[in-house]
Amino acid sequence: MLHVTEEQVRELLSMDQCVKIMRQTFLALRNGTASNQPRRRINLDTGSTLHSMGGAYGKYFGTKFYTSNPKYGSHFFFYLFDSETARPLAQFEANCLGQIRTGAASGYATDVLAAPAATSLAVIGSGFQAQSQIDAIRCVRDIKDLRVWSRKPEKREAFAKANGGRATETAEEAVRGAGIVVTATFAKDPVIEDSWIEAGAHGVHINAMGSNREQRREIPSRLVHRADLIAVDTVEVARIEAGDLIMAPVDWSDRRIVELAKIEHRPAGAPITIFKSCGLGVEDVSAAAYIYERLAK
Q1: Which of 6, 62, 228, 273 keeps 20 to 30 A from 86, CA to CA?
Q2: Based on the number of CB atoms within 10 Å of its own CB, is 172 exposed (0-12), middle (13-18) or buried (19 or more)?
């Protein structure tokens, strides 16, 4: 069984390639040739949590498990298996794997839902997940105006400079007039306001990806109810984890709520669209399978 390091993941899995892999993964979910197991959690009184999720894709299936503690951080691992024989194939150090595939899923959603002419991107947050969001969106849109806001001025300044963008004094300044908006934070309460989102001539697409807990959200209820289309990883996962929608609350039979795998093009006109990303185990499987096949040659 191969042991795959973080360095090998970064070397072999480019963001551009991973966006293509996510496109294939969601097509497989649409066709019924891939499957996903929602995340499960064991929460301890110490604040530590054990998380696990899995899926099957093509010749492979696998599971990711990771631990987290608010004071001591997180540790990610992924195991890949042969779907025909159940033979273990590879063990991954999986922090980078999750970061890249999370960004790539938003990149694919942005390619489907954002206006082709969108060139302005507002990012709320300046952590490692915010970085992968920028990298992925730049794979599918020609971003000419990048605006960044996060709570600590020195961090947002450095992050914006490193990415060729500009830091703003307020979140509102970053968001107003942007064609694409990303929220990538650890916030419990909304970090943007509905009144800041102006559809304009081409519409606005929002990737809300910071929360996968039912009691946390980054976007306000009014914006959720105002959106023309809300894409989710899967409805099954969203009903468990998508605090942005659960706390709105939404009617899960609402036709505006659609699984990303089932969306082939954006709504007509100048829509407001949202991709509420929680993350899927099958995304880890397809990305890990690509790396394994490169290493196993």
Answers
A1: 6
A2: middle
